[in-house]
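Task 17 of the worksheet. Students: predict the tertiary structure of the chain below and write it out as structure tokens. Keep your answer in the requested format; marks are given for formatting as well as content.
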Amino acid sequence: MTTQATQDAATRPIPGTYWQWRGQSIYYVRAGEKKSGHPPLLLVHGFGASTDHWRKNIAQLSNDFEVWAIDLLGFGRSAKPDLQYGGDLWRDQLHDFITDVIGQPAVLAGNSLGGYSALCVAAQRPESAVGLVLLNSAGPFTDTKVPTQPNPLQKFIGDVSRSVLLQPWASFLLFQYVRQRSVIRNTLEKVYLDQSAITDQLVEEIYRPSCDVGAHKVFASVFKSPQGEKIDVLLKQLRCPLLLLWGEADPWMRSRERGAQFRQYYPQLTEHYLQAGHCPHDEVPEQVNAILRDWTLSITSDSPT
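Model answer:
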């Protein structure tokens, strides 16, 4: 095979299958075999992404681990029912998947929204997690700053904007705009440091699920659902080893500030800052795969037998 052909094969998504959960079809991918002393890995995508976003990680990691990747309910090839989406729902989905399908506790690795969902599992369903890896993880901390009195005009505009976006017609129109391929590409260009990683394949993998029935209602739920449990509260409940991987060029997150907040509540964590944007696993997969592999093997060898 040529080098290009080899690269294409390495980034081609692995075919998956479906699991029925609460009457809904959930898509997942499995690669590799169980290895004695090596925990399974469960990879969880971010908002608008899917199992396809882990295509550069699954094949390499499956040399050392049984690797699973799953589409959260509402995303990818999974069903998109009209529900209230949030951390509790995805926590229960991931916990039940680990219990019913994987069959043993796993190391959960999640990017962005998937990181927050994985944290909810590890903190609130500890029997499912032997380790937790967060890649530019989303989620709110408790705001300890003294609130300032907002400008009345700014407050009015903000309140009107929120009330408008809560209207089905408004969220539908916004969804139709943001799901255009050109807008997807433009958004990726803002959050990826390595622009060469933004391929037609990547854009298509994000665009395709947006055409599914119910996709616009999942998008609208972002504006309707209340915020989930605060990260600091979850970290106080966490008992398993924690690895943070930060794409330092992520414009959506102040990674150094957020890293310091995580350390404040969980000082025993391990962290790495990488030259990447919001999705380091897709931009610098070799680095992420190596760090994830070595860290997972180290926490396994440190565990009591």
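Marker's comment: DSSP finds 13 helices and eight strands in the chain. The radius of gyration is 19 Å.
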